Amino acid sequence: MFILAFLLGILALAGTIWLRTDTPSSRSWETEEGIIDERFAFVFLPSFTLLLFGLGIIGVSGLFPEFTWPIKILFGIGIIMSGIGAVGSLIGLFSSRYPEWLLPQWRIDSPHRK
User: Fold this and answer.
1) Count of domains in the chain?
2) Containing H/E element for 69?
3) Whole-prediction pTM
4) Domain limits at 23?
């Protein structure tokens, strides 16, 4: 199951990087109506990526029968990443307010931003 989380995390990371770069293809969603908007591109998708990688790390730490200190550290990192990712995903889905520093400079300066 953790392999699936890592694979989906890699796909979400690729989408996040694509949406954050300043290219005409990544700006195409600005003038169209669809599922991708500013909250999805810059809040939800990066947070969801962090959540998936955190869950994958938790899954990897569960593979070891002994709960030694390196495994505890790995598990703790996974819990922290998953928690931040879950909160960010909820903010990206349900909140209309999010920090301005999450936006790339090209989006802040965009004439299409409402």
Assistant:
1) 1
2) helix 69-94
3) 0.86
4) 2-28+35-107
